[in-house]
Amino acid sequence: MASNDPERREEEEAGETAAGEDEDTGAQIAPIVRLEEVAVTTGEEDEDVLLDLKAKLYRFDKEGNQWKERGTGSVKILKHKETGKVRLVMRQVKTLKICANHLILQSIKLQEHAGNDKSCVWHATDFSDGELKDETFCIRFGSVDNCKLFMETVEKQAEAAGKKEEKESKEADSAAGELEKLSVGETKGEEKAKEEAPTAADEKESESTETKAA
């Protein structure tokens, strides 16, 4: 509100003009601290992304006998470039905090949650809290198609993990069989060598025969 006193009003106008002039100086103030970009590693650099979808994750609390929200974010299916192992990782969208992190094994079985075709549940040994825990998860997607795609991808990788484990088991059994054959062969060879080796009595008898002949 403007003052009724002319002198005071002039002072106010002069102050406003001065303030306006200060605002229009266009001076640029250099920042006191200059922040440089820092490369952030997620641990996913050596993995290929097989699936990346937005979803909301829940964990079943056994003590409270209820579902508790773990977070909303991006759920990924990642395959390691060297080992070929596949894992499920989910991070919260804002904090990037991990809310699910476990391998996809043959034992993982997914099923629709309570008749909701946008959600599914499964059990897994999870490592998101820094230690292995048996958890029951429920994930909800924005569409039926995304939920089906997620379930199909996980089931496919679980089946592949089972075949890989079976193959590795057969290779291990085969290697063990070859080692056993080598071990048996060495044992028989040692026994034969012992049988063919002259005993002390044989050597003494041979020396006695040689003496008599002389």
TrEMBL record:
GO cellular component: cytoplasm; nuclear pore
One BP annotation, GO: nucleocytoplasmic transport
Residue stretches of biased makeup (Basic and acidic residues): 1-11
Keyword Transport: yes
Ranges for region Disordered: 1-29, 159-214
Domain of life: Eukaryota
Compartment(s): Nucleus, Nuclear pore complex
Limits of the RanBD1 domain: 28-163
Gene Ontology molecular function: GTPase activator activity
Alphabetical list of SUPFAM superfamilies matching this protein: PH domain-like
Pfam families: Ran_BP1
Name by which UniProt lists this protein: RanBD1 domain-containing protein
